[in-house]
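Entry for the shared binder. Reason: the reviewer on the internal report wants the predicted structure included alongside the sequence.
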Amino acid sequence: MARNHATVKISKDDRDNGKVFYLTEMPAMQIEQWATKVLLGAIKGGAVIPEGIENQGLAGLVYVGLNAVAKLDYDMAAPLLREMLECAEIVPDPVARPDYRRSDIASDIEEVSTIITLREAIFELHTGFSLAAAFSKSKATA
């Protein structure tokens, strides 16, 4: 079975309006290692994993992950954030050449909000959960 993909079109009234990005899910081994680094870094930073959270399935993992990320120091978080964006490619000309993509997206992004939009979409691609919905659920249970 092929990895999941998503297309994100930036629809904001800013410099990135209309840009199209193609996202590809990380291979299972890579995402498992990435998630392990996040959790171990968070535990090192003082995060506490609630007892019985493993019985809540992916929703429990998402809850722990959202709370754990706040415990990461920058030196731990920076390479993880870079690796996350490696899932994104830009489609420079989505009308004339929709199948042509480029992986070096740093010079294409002009707005911080675009980076946040891509991170949210990458998170959802890997977990099936909307980051905005997960944050609101996390706040509701706090």
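Summary line for the report: The first strand starts at residue 5 and ends at 9.
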